[in-house]
Design brief:
Two copies of one chain form a homodimer. Chain A is an alpha+beta fold. In chain A, the strands form three sheets. A seven-stranded mixed β-sheet of chain A has the order 9-11-8-12-10-13-14, sandwiched between helices. Chain A has a five-stranded mixed β-sheet with strand order 1-2-7-5-6, covered by helices on one side. In chain A, helix 3 packs parallel to helix 4 and helix 6 packs across helix 9. The interface between A and B is large, with 85 and 85 residues.
Chain lengths: 356, 356
């Protein structure tokens, strides 16, 4: 499969097909469509248990020894290509990505792990730079890299560096955040311009220079989440739109919560540079990955206060209300700029392999 | 570097050399020598924090929200080649390896994560079989795979399947297990015959058939550890001798605790088939990986009771007392079968790449 898969792959099928390939393809890693089928039809049956079946960004555990507390637990392997991109690298991304998964559980991060798969021949100085970046990102977020592992594979059996970060955090008593709490009447907020991470990685990979350089939005979201809870908002669900972007997340939530989601296209904040890049490449910013944005589902009555608290934070200045949840079939309906309504397709193909 | 590196690499240097290569080599992943230097000279400075500096198999965390409890947190990526070997596969190994790291912290496992890096072209049925094995191993140990992640890389950028499992567990109040507690007078116990995992993987990789097939000892150790604590033993330290085998672990403990370790070669339990294989391949079973064995450091006065409790468990039938800790320079002294004393070399080269 070409690396420069264009946006038309997104328009393939409007709902998931069965897992009909006999070999793994790049689309099984794209975070939507074939990925979802791989999870549903192969991984979930093999690894079945209630925590995994909840389909959250992380698991919530309540050990009897720790009365009252809940532990959030999440994992992510980063295989981003290239290792360095405008606005970040695999080191900072590996920290932000996993911290953000914890934050999306409503958790305050406690510690991260860091497990490396190095390819024979990787320059030591390159590794040193990437690990320094990873260390700085963890330090800036105030979360220790508490444990780690290093493996080396032969030349041609890896790709420079893969980084797994897993994370644990504590969910304060009273916070219940997850797709199961999404209900008709909820407003949907996004914390900033979407698609910058995907566009930044793609611009390097395709060797495209835009008038203004697009930097990844990669950033740690735990503080922004705390700001949301600090105003007392009854946050029903949080999700960071990484692989598959806002589009994939809305499909997942509609399906998991059994609700219809209405999205106002005109309200979706998109940088001018990202919009130009998308036009040039035939991509839809709705399906481009973010690594420093969140979607928040809150009751309509609390949405003004929640939006204000996001906008008061440096990572949420461009926050917008982009849609709402309503009664209906599990699907995503887009109100276009000219007022028409269309169904958002479920991304079946592989928009952008190895974006994170 | 040849895959069939022979044992003479083990005799290279008797102490770590500086990180003098400018590129990653396979020996940086071998779990001793160059691996240790990579950790000391590059990773630890980049990721510095007290938890990581403790050099345990996992981190112990004490969040203020959870008064009294301690959380153990560990991570391991499995890149074993081949994916299936006598006595196990990458699925069961990924479960046992991480459960065992938790057990070595004195923790009762609470949950595992599972993050996959799939290579494009991997047959789906092969993945299904390996995931079924992983799921069975987790189920047999009574520990859920609570969260996961799947990434796909292009053909030639991976090697079929890499599996990261991270794990969290709870350390019951009163258990203090770690290298810092090892002291002169401690007896050193091993729970069974050593080197079977390394020999099993190597026999497949080198295409060698032995008279009796060597099966990996891969097994989950949390129950065996509970059996040790159940007799009230004041266990000072636990360690599973994986990469680098018993030899590498003894060097690590001697260095971390600042003690001399005396090992009686004649007491080390080794299967006849493993001994033959080692003779044929010029390897030392002391440096071959185990995946279902533990080393326990206990006060001499409690060693009989501890040994009996190990032997009463199906995974500890062949347990032996193999040495003791004494006052002296941090080093490992071997009392050979003929009664001579020699220093155990620090494995500098790469005994067996991709053994786990």
């Amino acid at each position: 499969m070409s690396r420069s898969t264009r946006g038309d792959a997104l328009l393939g099928a409007s709902c998931p097909r069965p897992l009909d390939a006999d070999r793994i393809t790049l689309s099984h890693g794209a975070g939507a469509g074939a990925s979802a089928r791989l999870f549903e039809e192969l991984l979930l049956p093999a690894l079945d248990n209630p925590a995994l079946a909840s389909r959250h960004d992380g698991a919530l555990l309540e050990p009897p020894e720790l009365a009252g507390g809940r532990i959030a637990f999440t994992t992510d392997t980063f295989v981003v290509d290239p290792l360095v991109f405008p606005g970040g690298d695999i080191g900072s991304l590996a920290v932000h990505g996993t911290l953000n998964d914890l934050a999306m559980c409503g958790a305050r991060p406690l510690a991260l792990s860091c497990a490396l798969v190095l390819e024979e021949g990787l320059p030591i100085e390159r590794l040193r730079g990437l690990m320094a970046s990873l260390g700085r990102a963890a330090h800036a977020a105030g979360v220790p890299i508490a444990t780690g592992d290093t493996k080396v594979v032969e030349r041609g059996k890896g790709d420079g560096l893969f980084v797994n970060t897993s994370g644990i955090g504590i969910v304060p008593a009273g916070r219940e955040v997850g797709p199961a709490r999404v209900r008709p009447g909820d407003a949907i907020l996004v914390s900033g311009c979407v698609g910058r991470h995907g566009a930044a990685v793609l611009s390097v990979r395709e060797g495209i220079a835009f008038e203004s350089a697009i930097e990844s939005d990669s950033a740690p979201l735990p503080d922004l989440v705390e700001a949301l809870f600090a105003v007392g908002a009854d946050v029903h669900c949080l999700r960071d739109p990484t692989r598959g972007g806002v589009g994939a997340v809305l499909h997942e939530i509609a399906s998991a919560a059994g609700v219809e989601i209405e999205l106002r296209e005109a309200s979706l904040p998109v940088d001018a540079a990202v919009a130009s890049a998308c036009e040039l490449l035939g991509l839809d910013p709705l399906f481009l990955a973010c690594e420093g944005r969140l979607l928040a589902f809150v009751p309509e009555s609390e949405s003004d206060a929640a939006l204000a608290s996001l906008r008061a934070h440096s990572l949420g200045r461009d926050a917008e209300r982009i849609g709402r949840v309503s009664v209906g079939r599990p699907r995503v309906v887009v109100e276009t700029r000219i007022g028409a309504r269309r169904l958002l397709p479920f991304p079946a193909g592989d928009p952008l392999p190895r974006i994170c």
